[in-house]
Amino acid sequence: MATTTRPKPKSVFPKIISTLWLLFLSGLAVFILYIYAVSVNFLNLFGDLPNMRTLENPKSALSSVLYSADNKELGKYFRENRTPIEFNDLPENFVHALMATEDIRFEEHSGIDPEAMARVAGSLMIGASKGGGSTITQQLAKNLFRTRGEELNNGYLNDKPGFRTLIHKTKEWIMAVKLEQSYTKQEIMTMYLNIFEFGSNAFGLQSAAKTFFGKNAKDLEVHESAVLVGLFKNPNYYSPKFNPENSKRRRNVVLSQMVKYGYMTQAEYDSLKDQDIALKYRVENQNVGLAPYFRTEASKFLLKWCRENGYDLYADGLKIYTTIDSRMQQYAEQAVEEHMKDRQKEFFAHWKGRNPWIDRQGREIPNFLQTAIKRTDRYRNLHRQFDGNQDSINFYLNKKIPMTVFTYDGEKEMMMSPLDSLRHYKHYLHTGFMAMEPQTGHIKAWVGGINYKHFKYDHVKQGARQPGSVFKPFLYTAAIENGYYPCYETLDTQVCIPLGDGTMWCPNNADNKFSGEKFTLRNAMAKSINSISAFLVNKLGAETLVKTAKRMGITTPLEANPSLALGVNDVTLYDMVGAYGTFVNSGTWVEPNFITRIEDKHGNVLHEFVPKTVDALSEETAYMMVHMLKAAAEPGGTAYYGLRHRNGLKNEIGGKTGTTQNYSDAWFMGITPDLVAGAWVGGDDRSIHFRTIALGQGNKLAMPIYGSFLQKVYADKSLERSKEPFPKPSTPLSVELDCSKYNNGIPVDSAQQDEFYQVPAPIDLDAF
């Protein structure tokens, strides 16, 4: 019997494989079509992608940096605190930590890591989470081009459930591949580390290193790098400042990843894992760092320049080079703090049990605080909020709330009402100090007040106050230009000058006495004798004095009244330092300046600044005025004891003290051959001051700041500041400056006794 062989059943596997292959190809085709559709924003379904120009020139906001003359960073202007860093300045340990934690195959993939994506897909299928699949390049694309922002997500499907995240990811894949095609791995890594936000207003690795550890990125140690890499997962949750335990755990995860991939040994990890995180945390802002008042005033100039030249100060990464010397600035700030702290203690003791705001009769000014608070933003905001209802306004002005207040012993947390706070701050004295090179006009130090965080008002350039006797050198300059000379003698007698309204101006001396003695002009200026200033202004005319002061750089309004001779019109410290520089600079006024050049982010020079100059005085007049000013620092002069004995300064110095009516303003101006400086001290309001000249005069309140500053400057040999005598004029003088060489003495102006009214006058402590 024959047997039959059944045919073997056909295998289903080829059909399955064929079907799977067909599905794969179909899926691939759909995927490719989908990617293409997203890339061209087909039918506006997906929203736009960045154009090629954006890809070729990716922009992120960069801080503009302010540098000192000795190339130290003074501060930044920014919306996002970001300072770019080059790849060569990236610490190797940071790069290794980042790759080990975020993208170990960064050097191998082309923007998308298939292995990581497969791992994520597998995890999702089994309901587990094994971390994200985004590469460093994808994260760069997300942050650099803001792929999840509204601007690129204006397509029809973006608002549909389930589509938004997929579209975001797709755009990041596309841009990541394009980035890899356009940039090297080093460039991608550098861009990513320059744009990432680490928290605490720190954008980019350099700013983060400064903010959290107080150092440059290139100096980060491996455990510090691991802390910052930990922030890539979540800057807030793993913040070493606000969540130190979370940060420490995450740091150790980063370090263990470095062990896993061979960037660190187990022994090294074991030595670091239990260490606490040591921070030097400081958020960069305008309240901290050197020269905060200067940085704010400089920004006003820079913003105007940027508007006129098409730049953004807060985003274009400009490099701004200033005239400030970081060492001199530090010494100036130290001198101010040391002196003002002591004077403030004295002021508190002087007014213990009383309020310091008084009228000319020494009586407390009624409703002083209630009037002053109406000038504050807090009052204006309350007025708007309650539509002028005074009961509601007064309730909140007297309601105690937690406040951080300034004291010289550090900030203190207190419960205070706004009126309490105003009372507290009105008890403080304020100051301004500026130092400048007279030959160049370069400002070397600028201190606008006692504490920028709590007192924003700048007393160098923003504020103007009565100068008192520091204005007198302009009068003596006018006298020398009109034929007088340092050895010319006048009498210390009362001078009364008729005014246009029929009254007489009869100024008193500081001690309310007239000696009747003869004084040379040099000694009269050194002793600041008011009667002789009155004699000169009457001879020369107030108009002449105005013209002289304006020619030497005073920009504030000056009234042509005889009292101008005693400094009754407000001036700025900024103008006064510039004007005194004219004496030292052989008669040439150089406009005080503080910016030398501006560069773009690549170091290309955009502008170099040349200060304005004016031939204001003859060389001879300028030198004679230097000779006159030197008398203040010689025996008998108002600055002699303080500068020579207290500060031990032996070199040639010129100067002038100034004290205004009721001791509201104390001044000192000082000159050396290569440095001119000025200091002002006074209350926030003119009614706030000491009650005695012993405590409120210029050589007590203002001069010590100058003396301490100069002492510190000379002690720093790296500054190489001159202690040589003032240089002589290039040609012989037309007059003799040694008064002892006038054989027959110097006659008093014979007309002086006859042409002035000698009538009694009430005591008038006008500016002296």
UniProtKB/TrEMBL annotation:
| All residue ranges annotated as the Penicillin-binding protein transpeptidase domain in the record | 432-674
Is Electron transport included in the keywords of this UniProt record?
no
**UniProt pathway annotation:** Cell wall biogenesis; peptidoglycan biosynthesis
* Spans traversing the lipid bilayer: 12-36
UniProt-annotated location(s): Cell membrane
A Gene Ontology biological process in which this protein takes part is:
regulation of cell shape
Q: Name one Pfam family in it.
A: Transpeptidase
Please write the reaction equations for the catalytic activity of this protein: Preferential cleavage: (Ac)2-L-Lys-D-Ala-|-D-Ala. Also transpeptidation of peptidyl-alanyl moieties that are N-acyl substituents of D-alanine; [GlcNAc-(1->4)-Mur2Ac(oyl-L-Ala-gamma-D-Glu-L-Lys-D-Ala-D-Ala)](n)-di-trans,octa-cis-undecaprenyl diphosphate + beta-D-GlcNAc-(1->4)-Mur2Ac(oyl-L-Ala-gamma-D-Glu-L-Lys-D-Ala-D-Ala)-di-trans,octa-cis-undecaprenyl diphosphate = [GlcNAc-(1->4)-Mur2Ac(oyl-L-Ala-gamma-D-Glu-L-Lys-D-Ala-D-Ala)](n+1)-di-trans,octa-cis-undecaprenyl diphosphate + di-trans,octa-cis-undecaprenyl diphosphate + H(+)
Q: Which GO terms describe its molecular function?
A: penicillin binding; peptidoglycan glycosyltransferase activity; serine-type D-Ala-D-Ala carboxypeptidase activity
Give the similarity note. Answer: In the C-terminal section; belongs to the transpeptidase family. In the N-terminal section; belongs to the glycosyltransferase 51 family.
User: What is the protein named?
Assistant: Penicillin-binding protein 1A
User: Per the UniProt entry, what species is this protein from, by scientific name?
Assistant: Pontibacter indicus
